[in-house]
Design goal:
single chain; 110 residues; mainly beta; 4-stranded antiparallel beta sheet; 1 helix; flat
Amino acid sequence: MAEMTRLCRLWNKTSARGGAYLVGRMGDARVLVFQNTRKADDGDHDYEIFLTAIEERQPQNQKASQPAPRPQKKVPTKAASKAAGKLHEPITEPCHDDDLSAILPLEGET
């Protein structure tokens, strides 16, 4: 058997939409592996691999030089919504730092 070289290590994750995927690092890139959920027949590929740039993060001891945290979204209250002529329930969806929507496979894509 030929000698093997490890490219990276991958961890199981679950997206906010409930989809399973693998994530890891390869040098200065983030590796993402998604299962092909649009498989039409057995001849289609099973997985897709994506590479994205990794944003550099400062060490924890340099908090003073980090930019200010993003402001929190204000959840509209029922009184404020009625005053604006609209009635909305408070937003309950979780917020995540890693926005994967630009690289997650969309339904109907091949």
